[in-house]
Each structure stands twice: as C-alpha cells, then as structure tokens.
Amino acid sequence: MADYCIQEFERTHSINLASSWGDVDLCIKISRETFSSLNEHHFKKCISIMDQVLQDSGLQKSSVDEIILVGGSS
C-alpha cells in the first residue's frame, strides 16, 4: 500500500484513500498539499522525536543514512 501511495503522489500529486468504517466504505481523492496539511502535526512530532534520539545518542544527522518508521493503527 505504501508503494502505491508514493507512486500515486509522484504520478498525479493526489491519492485515492480507501477505508472501511463499520459498514461504510470511503474512497476520497486528496492533493499532496491537503495530505501534508492534515498530517503536519504528525510529521513534526516524528521529527522532534528523531531529533531527541540523535541528541541523546550523541550522533549527528550526517551519520544516519536512513530512518525507518514502523507502526500501525490501533
């Protein structure tokens, strides 16, 4: 699903989001700008946590090649 989302953003700068909630299926198309705006606080929180981890570990950003975020909804 993540690969599909990335490909859609690169191709059209919009994405179809599909979700099921109870007996209701929802499919909407949003722009990259809307997606970013809706999730800005989540992105900032992730960046803040990563900055704190770097500070606590004494590492510089330049010494990190990649960060993989994992998790899911509950």
UniProtKB/TrEMBL annotation:
InterPro entries, A to Z: Hsp_70_fam
Listed Pfam families: HSP70
Molecular functions per Gene Ontology: ATP binding; ATP-dependent protein folding chaperone
Family: Belongs to the heat shock protein 70 family.
Originating species: Allacma fusca
Record's keyword annotation contains ATP-binding: yes
Protein name: Heat shock protein 70
UniProt keywords, alphabetically: ATP-binding, Nucleotide-binding
